[in-house]
Specification:
This protein is of the alpha/beta class. The chain is built from seven helices and seven strands. A seven-stranded mixed sheet has the order 1-2-3-7-6-5-4, with helices on both faces.
């Protein structure tokens, strides 16, 4: 399976991504993008937009929200088109069970939009978790595990990037404009640079990792560091 740059997008961020798409193609003409989103995004207009942008995708789907799609999966199973596959991870005590089918219509009213469907069960002795996605990439036993990892990466992106930026002391909030003379964009870029600088020791520095483990949350650490910059030291004679 090819390497992709993974993005977790909402509709507003997709519009912003559109504005940067041409420049991105110029700077990185060989970079492939993969969009991963929740089940609200698995609709014909949105998938049509992704196709128009030349973007690959792994989108969540739910049986309750996509009844026609899952009816088509059942019909494909009756006709012998569905593939079942199981993979055992004995070290982790997990069983990965897959069911997938290629080239089924997303909705009855938009039958021209065809998708490939993956159902996945993660099982251990205590519980069973179930997930399902649609993707434009053709699914096989060789790539279904990697596609599952890509679909589940949405939570990793949300928690380790977006949630961190919002709740761990970076104060990154929604903004619906670029600001006067693009000031908001500049602030966002500086914030992302600070996040990158913080990520480097988090990945590579044993001392950073030890302090982080001791404090638990980065917010407390950042507050203490700010306090040290704001402190005024007076030498008494």
């Amino acid at each position: 399976m090819s390497a992709f740059a993974m993005f977790s997008l909402t509709s507003p961020s997709l519009l912003a991504f559109d504005k940067e798409r041409a420049a991105g193609n110029q700077d990185h003409p060989h970079l492939k993008f993969m969009i991963t989103e929740d089940s609200l995004s698995s609709n014909a207009p949105h998938i049509g937009t992704l196709h128009a942008h030349g973007l690959h995708y792994i989108l969540g789907v739910k049986a309750g929200d996509h009844a026609y799609l899952f009816q088509q999966v059942q019909a494909a199973e009756h006709s012998g088109r569905v593939t079942s596959y199981e993979r055992h991870d004995r070290a982790a005590g997990l069983v990965h069970r897959f069911r997938f089918v290629n080239d089924v219509p997303l909705t009855q009213s938009n039958a021209a939009i065809r998708v490939n469907v993956i159902e996945y069960w993660e099982m251990n002795d205590d519980r069973v978790q179930h997930f399902s996605w649609v993707t434009d990439l053709r699914v096989s036993q060789r790539n279904v595990y990697a596609l599952m990892r890509g679909g589940r990466a949405r939570w990793k992106i949300e928690n380790e990037t977006l949630n961190t930026l919002k709740n761990q002391g970076y104060h990154f909030e929604r903004n619906y404009g670029h600001g006067m003379q693009n000031l908001s964009v500049v602030f966002a870029m500086v914030l992302m640079l600070a996040f990158l600088v913080d990520q480097t020791p988090q990945l590579c520095c044993a001392l950073f990792q030890a302090v982080w483990a001791q404090l638990g949350r980065k917010r407390l650490w950042w507050e203490r560091m700010r306090a040290s910059f704001g402190a005024l030291f007076i030498r008494l004679r």
